[in-house]
Specification:
394 residues, nine-stranded mixed β-sheet, two-stranded antiparallel ribbon, 15 strands, 19% strand
Length: 394
């Protein structure tokens, strides 16, 4: 029994169980919903308050919910959970899904997508003067998170700690009349997000040429674009994309080997061992639902040729699929994430992969994909075994 003295001087009694009621007595789903509105820093501090808070901030289900709600993403280290996630009914739309065995749970993902982490990265790279509050916040990310969340996301100590990853961008999405402006916005950008700083010379003949991009003042990467042919011919190719894009006479990326099987041309094959990630862009607009299977099958074959050529080397590099759409075009319908993942047979891949919806008008979704793949590569860079294995023929 708990006795209280009211303002009128009267004594009242309350049940002791009622007096000790806390937020953690609520159903777990409600607690997750409430806590999801807190900042990453506040969540970390909540985890240090009591055993209930500690348990919540170590709950993978909570972080999965947090990533889905805040960023519209689902990350997994187990391919068997992908189908269940795609079938899940949620009030929050799913805009991207990735399989990455190197991720230490959705807690890590919540950190790398958080505004706090990005601000600290920018300051560490010398793009902004770090004030005392930011210094304290950086210490929180480095010190509190490893203890409370049982993992550690290393922060670079400066620009010299960055490396320039080599990404190759290819696929029907960079040649479609609906979505080709995606490349132009990335290559010609002079913004705080995409800053194209210099031209990259490729192999003889121009294969693999591109631009070096400073991304969000956090990472540097070389972006190389592989087109099927000249722009005038590409217009014709794309109008019959399921047939002409797989014709070596029109698509100069392709050749036929001695058995008549499609393969990547030798000059591009020489480029493959130097790559850190593949970026496959597709246009998800279709005329009708009846054409989805046909469209995705053409994409699967085109991607399959690249992956088969890559398999000749001991390369375990991530695949980033940009599912592009242009809302201003007014397409009848769009290919869904599930149709892309199943149609491209990504569930059979052992290498890390991610599929992210991209709006070409505002570039929404591109950053989410790049945040993941560049963070993945930065982690891999610190693994000596990764370097020793790259580019060795099997």
């Amino acid at each position: 029994m708990h006795v209280e003295n009211t303002s009128e001087g009267k004594l009242t009694t309350t049940d002791s169980a009622e007096a000790n009621t806390s937020i953690f007595d609520l159903p777990r789903e409600i607690i997750q919903q409430i806590v999801s509105y807190l900042s990453l820093q506040d969540i970390c501090q909540l985890g240090a308050t009591c055993r209930h808070g500690h348990s919540l901030t170590h709950d993978e289900d909570f972080w999965e919910f947090q990533v889905w709600k805040q960023f519209g993403l689902y990350f997994t280290t187990d391919l068997n959970t992908v189908t269940e996630a795609l079938a899940k009914t949620s009030r929050y739309p799913l805009e991207g899904l990735a399989y990455d065995p190197s991720v230490q749970g959705n807690r890590e993902i919540s950190v790398i997508y958080s505004p706090e982490f990005k601000r600290i990265m920018i300051e560490r790279n010398g793009k902004a003067k770090q004030d005392p509050f930011r210094a304290k916040l950086a210490n929180s990310i480095k010190d509190i998170l490893p203890r409370l969340l049982a993992f550690y996301v290393a922060l670079p100590v400066g620009v010299e700690d960055q490396f320039s990853a080599r990404l190759v961008l290819f696929g029907p999405g960079i040649e479609s009349a609906n979505t080709k402006l995606l490349v132009r916005r990335m290559v010609n950008a002079r913004s705080s997000t995409f800053d194209a700083v210099e031209f990259i010379k490729g192999l003889p003949g121009g294969i693999g040429s591109g631009v070096k991009i400073n991304y969000n003042h956090m990472y540097n990467f070389d972006l190389m674009c592989l087109y099927s042919n000249s722009e005038s011919i590409r217009e014709t190719v794309y109008h019959n994309r399921n047939g002409a894009r797989l014709d070596p006479n029109l698509n100069r990326m392709l050749v036929k080997d001695s058995t008549g099987k499609l393969a990547i041309q030798p000059s591009i094959v020489k480029l493959l061992p130097t790559l850190h990630a593949l970026v496959f862009a597709i246009d998800t607009a279709v005329d009708s639902r009846e054409k989805v299977a046909e469209e995705v099958e053409g994409m699967r074959k085109e991607l399959g040729v690249m992956l088969e050529s890559q398999s000749k080397f001991n390369l375990c590099i991530p695949l980033l699929v940009l599912a592009c759409r242009n809302e201003s075009v007014g397409a009848n319908c769009f290919i869904s994430l599930e149709e892309i993942i199943v149609g491209l047979e990504l569930l059979e891949m052992k290498s890390p992969w991610g599929v992210f919806e991209v709006c070409c008008e505002n570039m929404r979704g591109v950053e989410k994909g790049l945040d993941w793949v560049l963070h993945h590569l930065a982690k891999k860079r610190r693994e000596l075994s990764y370097h020793s294995m790259q580019g060795q023929s099997s």
